[in-house]
Amino acid sequence: MIKNGKIHVIGLGPGDRQHMSERARTAILDSEVVIGYKTYIALVEDLLEGKEVIDSGMRKEVERCNLTVDKALDGKRVCIISSGDAGVYGMAGIMLEVKNERNADVEIEIIPGITAANAAAASLGAPMMHDFAVISLSDLLTDWELIKKRIECAAMGDFIISLYNPKSMGRVHQIEEARDILLKYKKPSTPVGIVKNAKRKGEEVVITDLAHMLNYPIDMLTVVMIGNGKTYVKNGKMITPRGYQL
Amino acid sequence: MIKNGKIHVIGLGPGDRQHMSERARTAILDSEVVIGYKTYIALVEDLLEGKEVIDSGMRKEVERCNLTVDKALDGKRVCIISSGDAGVYGMAGIMLEVKNERNADVEIEIIPGITAANAAAASLGAPMMHDFAVISLSDLLTDWELIKKRIECAAMGDFIISLYNPKSMGRVHQIEEARDILLKYKKPSTPVGIVKNAKRKGEEVVITDLAHMLNYPIDMLTVVMIGNGKTYVKNGKMITPRGYQL
Question: What residue stretches are annotated with the Tetrapyrrole methylase domain (chains A, B) (predicted)?
Fold first, then answer.
């Protein structure tokens, strides 16, 4: 009798190997099968010797999870990888959903990683020292009206706001509308950090403000960080004070 | 001439060494001086051989940062450590502020870590798969009225909400008031995860709902995770669907 295998859902962190956790690394090494979008597979190529590797294209999330369950039901130790934290717009949820849907008797462990907001914050200085909101501008799976409402509520609450998936080739108006909503509550001089490829190869960091943010390149690999009412820029770093007396 | 040293501000992650990044580990090993609150120093004891170690008590944040600058100006490689992500209610901001205040010619690198919300989410299942807000209930440095407003705005926007510092020995009413505000917008049956010591020794995970959450122990080592309108509990896991079609 083959004992059913175990599934590890792994967040690789921002991309640079140095920012991956030891737990993620050992879980990959211990796996017999590694499944993931090909860009992420490439990030851990050197850990994959002797393993079955299944890479797939974008938007094949459900298919990837089903394959993962199949392999685990075959008794294999499988890991499914994505960048950042698997629990933030990543594979953790859909993996649990597919397992439940199939009523599959396999164990799943979610291994957290450093998500893009935290990576971008570190490269900007210390913008995320106080209450913050993370919002994805992708309306592929979420109604744009709901996303707009969330931007409005986060701005109204003077949250630091980290925008994921701010813009893609075919999706350009969201970041402009988002900025219009933010400007209803936040000053045009509110600091904005734009970080492309945070904490990985090709990192680009821009610090600007709400008034000027659209003058800079923004794409799917970018996180846009908007300060709260107390955020300021000094010596090239974006800082949100926590409130300590110096 | 002694070259001024470098400061690393390090987030150790949730506490279990396995969830620390390689970058954090090597930066500690490369340091000559390690400064931190004594609880965090204890977490990395085995990395400290041959180093000058300065541990200090709670609420000495500014003093600790000044000491760090002093050591760096002496030409030392210094690291200042805290748990989770140094950039989320951690030491990153105050470190940059103290450096700027003293106009000190030292380089500072912020090394991100896995913050408590992401660690707790992994132990709960996949509650944080959609837009979320992180709010600290500590009113030591922040006006309680502002915190309440943020809870209200986050609830209004149907964010997943992660509450840090929900309750301490001398501060008990905030979590009750927070729940009252949440109940204005969210159903009593909204799933709530309560995670103590997320991803470290002594972890305790409870999954309940808004109606019953106050029946469980909550303290300063606890993160309270409140679902959005679509979050559900199945097979002992808290899941917020991203919206994929199964």
Answer: 6-212
The continuous run of DSSP H or E covering A205 comes out as: strand A204-209
Alpha-carbon span A99 to A104, nearest angstrom: 5
Q: Answer yes or no: do B125 and A110 touch at CB < 8 A.
A: yes
From residue A220, alpha-carbon distances to A27, A37, A108, A207 in Å are: 28, 16, 29, 18
- 8 Å CB contact between A80 and A36: yes
Cα of first residue to Cα of last residue in chain A, in angstroms, is: 66
Which residue among B111, B145, B169 closes a domain?
Answer: B111
CATH number at residue A66: 3.40.1010.10
Chain B residues whose beta carbon lies within 8 Å of the beta carbon of residue A205: none
Last residue of a domain, one of A64, A88, A111: A111
Q: Which residue of B has its CA nearest to A159?
A: B150
Q: pLDDT per residue over B68-120, tens digit each?
A: 999 999 999 999 999 999 999 999 999 999 999 999 999 999 999 999 999 99
| pLDDT, mean of residues B203-231 | 98
- b (16+ CB within 10 A) / e for B110-139: bbbbbbbbbbbbbbbbbbbbbbbbbbbbbe
pLDDT at A1: 45
pLDDT of B30 higher than 70: yes
Higher-confidence residue of B60 and A23: namely A23
Q: For residues A229 and A158, is the Cβ–Cβ distance under 8 A? A: yes
Q: B230: domain range?
A: 116-239
Between CA A64 and CA A10 the distance in angstroms is 14
Do residue B66 and residue B181 come from a single domain? no
Q: Closest Cα of chain B to A1: distance in Å?
A: 25
Which residues does residue B80 pair with via DSSP β-bridges, in sequence order?
A: B9, B35
Mean pLDDT of chain B: 95
Instruction: Pick the residue from chain B with its C-alpha nearest to A9.
Output: B122
Give me the total of CB pairs closer than 8 Å, taking one residue from chain A and one from chain B. Answer: 238
ipTM score here? Answer: 0.97
How many domains does chain A divide into?
A: 2
What does pLDDT average to in each consecutive run of 10 residues of chain A (246 residues)?
A: 81 96 97 94 95 86 95 96 96 97 96 98 98 97 97 98 94 96 98 97 97 97 98 98 91
User: 3-state DSSP helix/strand/coil percent for chain B, to nearest 5?
Assistant: 35, 25, 40
Please check whether residues A61 and A139 belong to one and the same domain: no
Record: contact B23-A21, CB cut-off 8 A:
no
H-run or E-run covering A24: helix A22-30
Do A104 and A51 sit in the same domain of this protein? yes
- Whether the CB of A178 is below 8 Å from some CB of chain B: the reply is no
Residue A246 lies in a domain: no
